[in-house]
Amino acid sequence: MKRIGLAAAAVLLLSCGIAQADERVTTITPDMALQLRAHSASHGTVGARKMQMLYAPTLEDGCTSVYLYADDDIVMYATLMKAVTIKSTFVLIYDTAPARRGPWGDPLSCPLTSVTIKL
Predict the structure, then answer these.
(1) pTM over cut 0.70
(2) Where is the secretion signal located (predicted)?
(3) Neighbours of 108 (CB within 10 A)
(4) Which of 45, 74, 113, 118 is deepest in the core (most CB within 10 A)?
């Protein structure tokens, strides 16, 4: 029984490592040209409804923007908006896994997983 528990823990740790392998980190500085886009709840493409996007020049691995759904991640959305509006330096972590890119059909948009403001 103990071996099964250890094996399950090893699989869990391995899975976490694989998930993190698809994440990238970029720093956004106040002098960078950014573009914010917000889609309404009545957007014609269902997968884009209530979605927010940030286009940034420092994204990697074929990502030109990061996205999140404000309703699902209200704290992260508020943190992102604060970072952009106060023109602070901030760090984004985003997922580059092909299966998670643009659920509405845009392979250049990657899901945002973290925002850190450098105060």
Answers:
(1) yes
(2) 1-21
(3) 12
(4) 113
**Higher local confidence (pLDDT), 7 or 105:** 105
- Sorted by where each starts, the structural domains of the chain and their CATH numbers stand as 24-118 (2.40.50)
- Two tokens at 36? 């914010």
Place of tokens 């071996």: 3
Edge-to-edge strand order for the sheet containing 51-55? 23-28, 89-95, 109-118, 65-69, 51-55, 35-38
Give CA separation, 49 vs 13, 52, 76, 90, 119, in Å: 34, 9, 17, 26, 32
The model's pLDDT over 57-107, given as tens digits with 9 standing for 90+, comes to 999 999 999 999 988 999 999 999 999 999 999 999 999 999 899 878 889
